[in-house]
Amino acid sequence: MNVLLLGSGGREHAIAWKLAQSPLLTELFIAPGNAGTAQVGTNLPFAATDFEALKFAIIEKNITLVIVGPEDPLVKGVHDFVLADAQLQAQGVKVLGPQQYAATLEGSKEFAKQFMIRNAIPTAAHFTATAENLQESFAFLEQQQSPYVLKADGLAAGKGVLIIPDLETAKQELQAMLQGKFGAASRKVVIEECLHGIEMSVFVLTDGKDYVILPEAKDYKRVGEGDTGLNTGGMGAVSPVPFAGEALMQRIEREIVKPTIDGFHKENIPYCGFVFIGLMVNNGVPKVIEYNVRMGDPETEVVIPRINSDLLQLCHAAATQNLAGQTIDINPQTATTVMLVSGGYPQDYESGKHITITGATAPSLVFHAGTKRENEELSTAGGRVIAVTSLADSKNNALALSYQAISNIHFDAMYFRRDIGFDL
Ligand code: AMP
Ligand code: GLY
C-alpha cells in the first residue's frame, strides 16, 4: 500500500524508518518531512495542516493510509476532513489518528479531566477556574499544598502549565491567565492538586475498541543536566523504564489503559491511533497527568526501535478497526536516545548550520529532527536537530553507544545533555 505520513520531526523519521521496513509498503511519502525522512521515503513539500494539499497528494499518489504524527492536524480535524470528502472516501483512504472530537483529549485539559472522572481513571484532584468563579477558584487553591499547579485549558505550545511555590503568586498568575496570558487557551484554567513521584509515559495503539500496548518510556524535558533550566520538547529518552516492573505495568493496564479505551468505546469517542498517557507514579501508584493524542517526541525514537512487529500492519489494523487478536512483539533490550540541539534552544537559536558526520555512527540510529538538505549539504533547520538512538543489553551500554556516535557528529553551537538516563 502507499502511505503518507504527516509531520517533520524526529518522531516522524523514526516512524518512517520503521514503516519502510514493512513488506506491506509499496511507496512511503512524508509531508513535509526532513532530510532524514528523505532517506527512507519521498518528502512532499506541504505543511501537515494544509488539508487541500493533502487531498491533492492522496489522489495523485494513490494513498490508502494517512498516518498523522503531530497533534496539530488532529486537533484541526484532519481525520474529519478526509471522512467528509466523497472523492477521498471513494478511494478508500483511511486515517490513523483520532477525529477532532476525540483529539479534544489533548486540546482541552478540562475535557480530559471530565473523561477521567466519568471513567474512574486515577488523576489529580482539580477545579476549573473561569473569570466567573474566581472566589471559588481561590478557595480551591487555598486548600492545596504548595506548589500550585495551573494549566491553561487549551493548547499553548507546551508552555501552558505553571508550577508555582507561593500562594499569592499563584493567585496573581491565575488571574493573568484568565485575562489571556496564553490567549484563548487560558480563558479556562485547570487548577490541579500537585502530584509527587516519578514521571513515565505509556503508549497505546487503538482502533477505539481493542488495543496493543507499546513499550513505555521516560523522557528528559529540562534543557540542563540534573533536570535544571527551561522545559523543552525533550532532550532524550529511555525505554524500558527500569522501575516499571511487571506489577506496575499490569496495574497501569488495569486501572488506566483499559478504562481509557473502554471509555472511548462506551462514549462513542471516535478514536483510532496512538494514545500517549503521561503518568506520575508514587510508591507504585500511577495517576494520569495528561493524555496526548499522538506519540511523544523523543519517546518515539526509543519506543519504535524496540518494536519487532510490523508497524505498518499494526497501523493498518488500527485504522481499519481490526486490532482484535493482534499482538505486539517487543525487543527486551534497552533503547536510549540523546537529542542534539542548537545552542540557545528552547529560546532563540540560529538555523542553517552545516552538519558534518566525520566517522561511523553505526550501530546507533541517527534520527533527524530539524534538518534539511540543499545541494547535497546537510544543515540544521530547528531547535532539536538530531536524536541519536542506540539499543543494547543494558542502559549504560546503550548510552555509551549513543555518546560514541555523537562524538562523530558536529555543527556550530551543538549542545546535548550528558546525563540522560543517569537517574534511573
Ligand atoms: P502537561 O503539559 O500536563 O504534561 O504538564 C507539563 C509538566 O508539568 C508535566 O510533565 C509534569 O512534570 C508537570 N505537571 C503537570 N501536572 C502536574 C501535577 N498535577 N502535579 C505535578 N506536576 C505536574
Ligand atoms: N516529549 C513530550 C511530548 O512529546 O509531548
Give the distinct bound molecules: adenosine monophosphate, glycine
CATH class of the domain at 2-100: Alpha Beta
Rounded to the nearest angstrom, the distance between the terminal CA atoms is 41 Å
> What is the CATH architecture descriptor of the domain at 2-100?
3-Layer(aba) Sandwich
Summarize the structure.
With 424 residues, this protein is α+β, with helices and mostly antiparallel strands. It has 13 helices and 25 strands.
Describe the structure.
The structure is a single chain. The chain is an alpha+beta fold. Among the domains are: 2-100, Rossmann fold (3-Layer(aba) Sandwich); 125-192, Dna Ligase, domain 1, CATH 3.30.1490. 29% of the residues lie in helices and 28% in strands. The protein has 13 helices and 25 strands. The protein has helices at 10-19, 51-60, 71-75, 78-84, 86-91, 100-107, 109-118, 134-143, 167-178, 246-266, 300-303, 311-319, 395-406, and strands spanning 2-7, 27-32, 42-43, 65-68, 94-96, 126-129, 148-152, 161-164, 189-192, 198-206, 211-213, 218-219, 222-224, 228-231, 236-239, 273-282, 285-292, 334-342, 356-357, 365-368, 371-374, 377-380, 384-392, 409-410, 414-415. Strands 12, 15, 18, 20, 23 and 25 form a 6-stranded antiparallel β-sheet that branches. A 5-stranded parallel β-sheet has the order 3-2-1-4-5, sandwiched between helices. Strands 6-9-7-8 form a 4-stranded antiparallel β-sheet, sandwiched between helices. α6 (100-107) crosses α7 (109-118) and α8 packs antiparallel against α9. The longest helix has 21 residues, at 246-266. The radius of gyration is 21 Å and the shape is globular. Adenosine monophosphate is lined by residues 124, 149, 151, 161, 192, 194-195, 199, 278, 289-290.
